[in-house]
TrEMBL record:
Domain Porin as annotated: residue spans: 12-325
Name of the protein in question: Porin domain-containing protein
Keyword Glycoprotein attributed: no
Organism: Marinobacter nauticus (Marinobacter hydrocarbonoclasticus)
GO molecular-function term, one example from the UniProt record: porin activity
UniProt cross-references to SUPFAM superfamilies, sorted A to Z: Porins
Region of interest called Disordered, as start-end residue ranges on this chain: 210-229
KW Ion transport (keyword) present: yes
GO biological process, one term: monoatomic ion transport
Length: 344
């Protein structure tokens, strides 16, 4: 019996690569990112803190390409889910999931639920993604959109990529909702990204997208917001520039966000940097969002260190703070953790 099982295992190892070579997949991938954190919330009416074990966007996914009976065209697909390692929670939460087609010279067309071009235009600027120092806590625009269709060009001049996405509102126009979002492209997101050698950059624009920032315990779109019901549609312009070498990294992001049907406006800045030596990476970033109506300011700073303990594994430590000036709300978090990435 043991010999039969061994033969089956070896046979599967021989057959699986041949299938993968034919269709470039499926590839199973994911990561487990867990941190142990002390979270200190300081509000005008209360102050408290707690130690918590956090699963930081740990995920499991499958992706690949399928050969088609069309010259130079393949089908592409990805199904990625967040897994809650710390407390179980909901077993799976949808992340970037899509299907589509890729042409060797014409580009890629996909549809599904995934990050907008403006969100992905942050590129490598955010040194503290998926932690309390993530730029999600500072500015609008970090949207994973439902019902989104996107075209991406092939790399132009070996350095430029154009991404254009549109999102139908999927509403029906009737007496109760005469101004329904029932068009083919009620929201639009686009970007032009640049990557050449050690340099990268992007310019991106969103029109009438629905996004939020996560400030403290209450999700808020703008620092001008009081948490009440408001027009969720935003127009956002984002500029990104950075450099990434074997010894150091530096990045800058500027963003202007406006309420599409009101006068709210946010201006955001973020600078980040890192120094690398051997397996150690020391990093820092600072960001500021200013609201033009109330003069409220939200600031974010973060300091951290990553240490690689394997090709796809690291341990890390960080200290972050998110503060709002007028309300005097402040969240400070210290954490240590590990990040293991895998694929097969």
């Amino acid at each position: 019996m043991k010999k039969q099982l061994l033969a089956l295992a070896i046979g599967s190892m021989v057959v699986a690569p041949s299938v993968a070579m034919a269709d470039k997949g499926p590839t199973v991938y994911g990561k487990v990112n867990v941190s142990y954190e002390n979270q200190d919330r300081d509000r005008a009416s209360f102050s408290n803190d707690a130690w918590r074990l956090q699963s930081n966007a740990s995920r499991l996914g499958v992706k690949g390409e399928l050969d088609l009976n069309i010259e130079d065209v393949v089908a592409v697909y990805q199904a990625e889910y967040q897994i809650n390692v710390d407390d179980g929670g909901t077993p799976f939460e949808q992340r970037n999931i899509f299907g589509g087609f890729k042409h060797a010279t014409a580009g890629t067309l996909i549809a599904g639920n995934f990050d907008t071009p403006l969100k992905r235009a942050e590129m490598k600027v955010d040194q503290f993604g998926d932690t309390p120092g993530d730029i999600d806590f500072l500015m609008a625009g970090q949207l994973r959109a439902k019902n989104i269709i996107q075209y991406s060009s092939p790399k132009l001049a070996d350095m430029l990529t154009l991404n254009v996405a549109f999102i139908p509102g999927e509403e029906f126009d009737d007496v109760a909702n005469p101004d329904a979002n029932d068009g083919p492209a009620d929201a639009i997101s686009a970007s032009l990204t640049f990557q050449k050698d050690i340099f990268y950059g992007a310019i991106a624009y969103d029109s009438e997208t629905t996004t939020r920032t996560r400030g403290g315990s209450t999700p808020r779109r703008f620092v001008d917001s009081d948490g009440g019901a408001q027009d969720p549609q935003n127009d956002i312009l984002r500029f990104v520039a950075g450099v990434n070498t074997s010894a150091f990294e530096a990045g800058f992001l500027y963003q202007l966000a406006e309420g599409a049907n009101n006068n709210m406006e946010d201006t955001s800045y973020l600078v980040s940097g890192a120094f690398k030596t051997g397996n150690l990476k020391l990093k820092a970033q600072y960001g500021l969002t200013e609201g033009d109506l109330t003069d409220e300011e939200r600031s974010l700073w973060a300091l951290g260190a990553d240490y690689k303990v394997g090709k796809n594994s690291k341990v890390y430590a960080f200290l972050t703070e998110v503060e709002e000036d007028l309300s005097e709300d402040k969240d400070t978090t210290f954490g240590i953790g590990f990040d293991h990435k895998f694929s097969m």
